[in-house]
Design brief:
alpha/beta, 2 domains, 6 helices, globular
């Protein structure tokens, strides 16, 4: 039997990995064990702190439900989701950059015609916006029949599943590009908002001394058969928190300008933004 010591505990645990597990699992578990052990050594982790961490993760799990995935929030706060996204969706050409899905996506929003509005409830002081653009492939060809899944927060900073006063699927919709690859919909200017900062997510933010706010943005999910699905966001160029997003997801290429609409338009603002999709290899 191995005499376990500070010097050999890590290789002892790694050696316990079965030779029968898939190679990828062995790579992941070897690295995980090694990094976790080194972390404990680096900070000289004490048993009381270890128990606090176990309690923290137990409470994080208890917080999860169909409207809140606490572990996504925790990974966002630590910059892990955006890192994993960049590793998964490396930009190799002219395709648009992706960014985090976030915790507020909902499947099967209403299917709406081109140019329709996602607004089901108006707010005092809201600014309406026509969002339009073209979706092309990396060779510059317009892509017809691209499905766009759209969602954003209301002017009060809340997504509809957070706010019982908003109608179901408010500020959400599913659209499709026309034969020229053009898309259009009407929405509202997104507001900066705090990610949920109660429960364990709030504890982590306070432990880090970091604020919870995100800049105003509209979420996009674009998909078409034969092309890599793009999960992205358009950020308001005049929004607060562009330089210190609480989840580190802002990229220069995803910042758009909300311009004053021309006289006679039926919205206050216009936002033009094009996307480029990459073919699946």
């Amino acid at each position: 039997m191995t005499n376990v010591t500070l010097d050999n505990i890590t290789p002892t645990v790694v050696a316990a990995l079965s030779s029968d597990i898939p190679d990828r699992q062995k790579v992941i578990m070897t690295s995980l064990i090694t990094h976790l052990h080194n972390f404990c050594r680096d900070v000289d982790l004490q048993h009381g702190e270890f128990l606090q961490a176990c309690d923290f993760f137990a409470r994080a799990g208890a917080t999860c439900d169909d409207k809140r995935q606490e572990f996504i929030l925790l990974s966002d706060i630590l910059g892990i989701e955006v890192l994993v996204d960049m590793l998964t969706n490396k930009v190799t050409g002219t395709e648009s950059e992706s960014t985090v899905l976030g915790p507020f996506y909902r499947e099967n929003p209403p299917v709406l015609p081109k140019g329709a509005s996602t607004v089901q409830k108006s707010f005092d002081g809201q600014e309406t916006v026509l969002v339009e653009g073209c979706i092309k492939d990396t060779d510059g060809r317009a892509l017809a029949g691209v499905t766009l899944d759209i969602w954003e927060d209301a002017p009060n900073g809340l997504y509809e599943q957070q706010d019982p006063e908003q109608p179901d699927f408010n500020l959400r919709g599913r659209f499709e590009t026309d034969a020229e690859g053009y898309y259009a919909f009407r929405a509202v200017r997104p507001a900066p908002y705090p990610i949920p900062d109660n429960e364990t997510a709030g504890e982590l933010l306070r432990y880090m001394g970091h604020h919870p706010y995100r800049p105003g943005h509209i979420h996009f999910m674009l998909f078409k058969e034969g092309y890599r699905t793009l999960v992205s966001q358009i950020y308001d160029s005049s929004s607060d928190y562009l330089d210190n997003d609480s989840v580190f997801a802002v990229k220069d290429s995803l910042i758009g300008e909300f311009k004053k609409a021309p006289e006679g338009a039926d919205t206050d603002l216009v936002l033009s933004f094009d996307f480029t999709l990459k073919q699946q290899s």
